């Protein structure tokens, strides 16, 4: 009997409109910038050019504004009914104690008022949700969809930390990583193919369709 494979494509959201350089974490109201929408549409066009992703079995998104904007643009490009888009909290951005602070500016800067104590070890985020917790919830989502949609393709829009933590877990056996060395560009697509039932990893593929969007 030939094993069935399911591919889950994890898409990072596009560029966010954030002129004040706030660490927005899970704060509502942070939507894509004009460039971010162009990036999302470019990725949607990339997905539409491939038969598997042009007709996915399902489309999911983190419940945050920037991911919903990205998912909406992708749905438009692949002809998917946006009303059929499903949000899943397991895809949400990592929890971060620096939420709302301006990165590199003012008294809330990462190196002021004792904030530096939270970033002494970039491999273990004492500033928020652990990489282990992040990877575990993404893994739970992905494995569920692998078995729920055997032999098919699923799209899911998420964030950099969840996507990379899960990928790093699969590639190295542990989710801990240096956040400065991630390879998850804005509006990029990281595709994970697994064997149905066993969850044996078949392949990981990466694409950056929006790299040239100005």
UniProtKB/TrEMBL annotation:
Coiled coil: none annotated. SUPFAM superfamilies: Phosphoglycerate mutase-like (SSF53254). GO terms for cellular component: cytoplasm. InterPro entries: His_Pase_superF_clade-1, His_PPase_superfam, PGM_Phosphatase. Transmembrane segments: none annotated. One of its GO terms (molecular function) is phosphatase activity. It comes from the Bacteria. PANTHER family: BROAD-SPECIFICITY PHOSPHATASE YOR283W-RELATED (PTHR48100), PHOSPHOGLYCERATE MUTASE (PTHR48100:SF51). This is Histidine phosphatase family protein. It comes from Alloscardovia macacae.
């Amino acid at each position: 009997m030939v094993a069935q494979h399911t591919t889950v494509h994890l898409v990072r959201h596009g560029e966010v409109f954030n002129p004040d350089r706030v660490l927005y974490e899970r704060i509502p109201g942070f939507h894509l910038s004009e460039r971010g929408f162009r990036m999302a549409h470019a990725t949607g066009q990339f997905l539409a050019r491939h038969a598997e992703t042009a007709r996915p079995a399902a489309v999911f998104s983190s419940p945050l504004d920037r991911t919903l904007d990205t998912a909406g643009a992708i749905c438009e490009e692949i002809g998917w009914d946006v009303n059929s888009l499903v949000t899943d909290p397991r895809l949400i951005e990592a929890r971060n104690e620096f939420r709302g602070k301006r990165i590199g500016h003012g008294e809330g800067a990462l190196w002021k008022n004792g904030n530096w104590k939270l970033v002494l070890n970039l491999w273990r985020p004492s500033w928020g949700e652990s990489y282990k917790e992040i990877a575990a919830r993404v893994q739970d989502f992905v494995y569920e969809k692998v078995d729920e949609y055997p032999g098919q393709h699923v799209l899911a829009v998420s964030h950099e930390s969840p996507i990379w933590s899960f990928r790093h877990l699969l590639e190295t056996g542990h989710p801990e990583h240096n956040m400065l060395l991630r390879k998850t560009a804005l509006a990029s697509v990281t595709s994970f193919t697994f064997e149905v039932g066993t969850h044996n990893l078949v392949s990981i593929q990466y694409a950056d369709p929006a790299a040239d969007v100005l």
